[in-house]
Amino acid sequence: MQVLPPALNDLIEDLGRLPGIGPRTAERLAYYLVRHDKTQALHLALSLDKLHDNIGYCKKTYALISADKQLSDLYTDPRRDKQTVAVVAEPFDIVAIEKTGQFEGTYHVLGGLVSPIDGIGPDQLHINELIKRVKADKVKEVILATNASVEGETTALYINQELEKIPVKVTRLARGLPIGVDLEYADQITLGRALEGRTLL
């Protein structure tokens, strides 16, 4: 005996395949779409239908762009400093840095991090493209803005070693304790970085 209609079960299963969505959340989202006006579900379906056809990757930075463009506005804008490049793991890392309003350089998206456990090596990331870009754009500083995780540190170390052959300044985002976090709850990497980067009062 079926408790729910097959169409609703299918939606719950599809939503449940998304990262960070558990079975209960999938049920709530599906029920929300059923309960509300059909136009909301149709609008969502239309957005999903257009998604892959209307999104592409910048040929220089590998940031997300409209499919009708070749290069990201963050690269072509004459106000951006092409000789300063922040290297990030994923496109949405750019959004986080841009929200600070304090970075005027350009970006380079790796498309992930080195992770032997997951079968991801340096050759599967946009590291070779970064090396070529550093040379072509005469980059003066590369800021390694990868996560403070084992994979992030491994990736940063690998890139740093590759860039040692080129006359370019390589820096790493400062690491420290977030405001409001107790020392007992800080992870070892964050606490270690905070000790290394301590400053005078």
Keywords:
201 residues; alpha/beta; Helicase, Ruva Protein, domain 3; Dna Topoisomerase Vi A Subunit, Chain: A, domain 2; 2 domains; four-stranded parallel β-sheet; 41% helix
Question: What do these coordinates show?
Answer:
The chain folds into 2 domains: 46 residues, RecR Domain 1 (Helicase, Ruva Protein, domain 3, Orthogonal Bundle), CATH 1.10.8; 117 residues, Dna Topoisomerase Vi A Subunit, Chain: A, domain 2 (3-Layer(aba) Sandwich), CATH 3.40.1360.10. With 201 residues, the chain is α/β, with parallel strands linked by helices. The chain is globular and about 70 Å long. The mean pLDDT is 89. It is 41% helix and 13% strand. The longest helix has 14 residues.
Draw up the topology in text:
Elements lengths: L5 H11 L6 H13 L2 H14 L3 E3 L6 E3 L6 H4 L4 E8 L2 H8 L6 E5 L17 H10 L4 E4 L5 H14 L5 E4 L15 H9 L5
Parallel strand pairs: 3-4, 3-5, 5-6
Antiparallel strand pairs: 1-2
